[in-house]
Amino acid sequence: MDSHVSYFFWDLLNYLINGLTQGSIYALVALGYTMVFGIIKLINFAHGEFFMIGAFIGYYCILSGMPFALAMPVAMIGSGIVAVIIERIVYRPIRHAGRIPALITALGISLFFQYAGQMIIGADPKAFPSSIENKTYQLGEVYFSTSQILIVTSSLILMLFLYWLVNFTKMGKAMRATSYNMKAAELMGIDTNKIISFTFFVGAAFAGAAGVLVGLHYGTVDPMMGMIPGLKAFVAAVLGGIGIIPGAVLGGLVLGVAENLVVGFWMATYRDAIAFTILIIILLFKPSGLLGVNRREKV
């Protein structure tokens, strides 16, 4: 094989591995966007802040001496509880006020968490405490680290858990019924408020897990860290078909791989631009997303 072709092949594999790692993070956060939208048609732009909250809960847990295997579930539960409180106090009273008030409220909550975090924790990035031995492995000319393996495997386990939850449990059946027709679900005796709170909890827990994994992989956390990943996860949800759980996973992986291919074979400065370019293209040519179906909707 020609040396140039060989180098291209190995570089491509390395960028694909990096892309799958990044895409797994986007997919975990995008699942929260798509689940909440699927239930109550709310685009929760504060969702990226649950990613940040989870990262900081994990940061303080590990700093206190807690092992990573325990710190991550604690961060997930903490993020979920914060999301349930926000849903109960902020979103529930305006649930029937229309989409615009809900959207503006979500943006306000996002800004609140960002600046409250800077005021309480400080704006400077914090070095995430080392809780595992992050080794680098080599297979041919392909390199990958312990943290990358942990991100991909943890994401896969959480996604399989969500698939089981939604498709094979009583709570999942209630979630699907509420998503399909909330009024009919209420008439059948389903407590839709409980289902909505549970959906917020699960979505935020996944985002919190992603925050801890990112802190572990990149080594720093800060109060503004949820803004860009949150926006990109929204792009991933739209790309796959917002409201469709497999679509969020597909969208996250496609976006992560696309970003890393652009970084590797073009220019690193276009990493963020590619996400929003994809958003524009998908809205122009297939606004329902890769796995979505076009539907007529009354406004």
Task: Note the total helix count.
Answer: 11
Overall number of domains: 1
Which range best describes the helical content: under 10%, 10-25%, 25-40%, 40-55%, 55-70% or over 70%? Answer: over 70%
Tell me what portion of residues adopts beta-strand conformation: under 5%
| Helix-strand makeup class | mainly alpha
Largest sheet: 2 strands, antiparallel
CATH architecture: Orthogonal Bundle
Shape: globular
| Topology pattern, helix = H, strand = E | HHHHEEEHHHHEHHH
Extended strand count:
4
- N→C terminal distance: 59 Å
- Spatial order of the strands forming the largest sheet: 1-4
Assembly state of the chains shown: single chain
Mean pLDDT: 90
Q: What's the CATH class, please?
A: Mainly Alpha
Question: What is the gyration radius calculated from CA atoms?
Answer: 19 Å
CATH third-level topology: ABC transporter involved in vitamin B12 uptake, BtuC
Instruction: State the low-pLDDT regions, or none.
Output: none
Summarize the structure.
By secondary structure, the protein is mainly alpha-helical.
